[in-house]
Amino acid sequence: MGIYEQTVYHTTAEGQGISYPYTVPENSVFVMNDYREDLSDSRTAGAIPLEDLRGKVFLIMRTSNI
């Protein structure tokens, strides 16, 4: 299952450690920051192993008609 967005965000030198298309390794997750211009997420760090996760999302709130 994938999430697809219409917006394309520029890539900076900070995010060049990952090449695309990118395959997330088994037992890992690809985490994206809500503020997409900030690259402090998996675009810089790569996939995060499941064993490194510290919590679970229990509520997601979105406005309607997005």
Write the SSE topology.
Layout: E1 28-29, H1 42-45, E2 48-49
Antiparallel strand pairs: 1-2
Mind telling me the CATH class? Mainly Beta
Structural shape: globular
Radius of gyration: 13 Å
Largest sheet: 2 strands, antiparallel
Q: CATH-wise, what's the superfamily?
A: Umud Fragment, subunit A
Class of secondary structure makeup: little secondary structure
Average pLDDT:
76
Overview of the structural elements:
- This protein has 66 residues and is mostly loops.
- The chain has a single domain, classed as Umud Fragment, subunit A, CATH 2.10.109.10.
- Strands 1-2 form a two-stranded antiparallel sheet.
- The protein is globular, with a radius of gyration of 13 Å.
Attribute tags:
little secondary structure; two-stranded antiparallel sheet; globular; 6% helix; Umud Fragment, subunit A; 66 residues
Brief synopsis:
6% of the residues lie in helices and 6% in strands.
